[in-house]
Amino acid sequence: MTEKELRKLKRVELLELLVEQTTEMEELRSQLEEARKALADRKILLQRAGSIADAALALNRVFEAADQAARDYVASVKAVCDRQTEEIQEIAGGDREEGAEQ
């Protein structure tokens, strides 16, 4: 509406326009507040996503360390078993030699 058209309006019409604009402004403020809340929620979700990714990486490192520890333990047990097998074979070989000598 132009300034000329506004000047031609009566007081009641001007008040009605003012009420309409006030109502529209309140609705826009409400929408703005909702948009701000939605933005804040998205920021929180993004922060959580970052935290979850960090936690996943940390867990991955823990699992890698646990896997390495398990491999080391299995290798250690295998080495002990191999040594015991060799010792048993030496003892058994010694018994055979003693039996052959008699």
Give the N-to-C terminal Cα separation: 127 Å
Globular, elongated, flat, extended or rod-shaped: what is the shape? rod-shaped
- Characterize the main sheet: none
Low-confidence stretches: none
Number of strands: 0
Q: Could you state the oligomeric state of the chains shown?
A: single chain
Mean pLDDT: 87
Radius of gyration: 42 Å
- What helical percentage do the residues reach? over 70%
Notes on the structure:
The chain is mainly α and 102 residues long. It has one domain. Helix content is 95%, strand content 0%. It has two helices and no strands. It has helices at residues 3-8, 11-101. The radius of gyration is 42 Å and the shape is rod-shaped. The mean pLDDT is 87.
Please specify the SSE layout and strand pairing.
Blueprint: H1 3-8, H2 11-101
Short description:
With 102 residues, the protein is mostly helical.
Main features:
102 residues; mainly alpha; 2 helices
